[in-house]
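== Sequence and structure of one protein ==
=== Format: two labelled lines per protein ===
==== Data for this protein ====
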Amino acid sequence: MILEKTYNASCVLCFSGGQDSTTLALWAQKAFQQVHLLGFNYAQKHAIELEQAQKIAQLLNLPLKVLDLSFLQEITLSALFANNPQKSNAPHPKNPNLPASFVPDRNALFFTLAHAYAFNLGANFVLVGVSQQDYSGYFDCRKEFLDSLQTSLNLGAFGIKEGIAFLAPFMAMSKAQEFALAQDLDGLELILEHTHTCYEGIRGVRHAYGYGCGACPACRLRQNAYAEFLNHYKQD
């Protein structure tokens, strides 16, 4: 199992300060020789996640670089942008098969920049916290997409399909299982207190599952996952 392996190598980890990427960072610290966090400011409505990302990086003693991608709101539409009042649980105006929170090609851009950063650092891996089980309807969180992008970027950078490997250890895991992994890594309280998932950027009240509005798709997913974790995985 990929989560049981250790790597005599360094990695770049796409980091948002949310549950997925923070749990991934907890695991990566144990599995890799060096971990470099890479975050993104894309004018998101929940930009508070970047403040939490900085705090978490300091708590974990990991280096964090944040790139400014705020231009995205100028060329595409998403309910996640700060300048868009649309509700995140509505259909996307350009593709009704996607939620309004979808940011076209966001993950492709994030992962491409992480690949370039890894190339520059001499890192062997790019880590991403996506899951095709709990992927909120985003097509770019699937294994098929990630494998295809890895092949294309390595062909461009090395001339062959091999080079920098993308790892998505949570691809087949649920968020309830992620809570259980955080518990095993002695990081459950870190996840509950410091990570941010809510699309609305609300952190006024801590709920059992963490902070958030409790109503947006990200909050509902996290709330349901925590309830499942309590029922099936939590250790006394």
User: Anything to note?
Assistant: Strands lie at 7-14, 32-41, 64-68, 91-92, 95-99, 125-127, 165-167, 206-207, 210-211. The first helix runs from residue 19 to 31. Residues 17 and 47 are 10 Å apart (CA to CA).
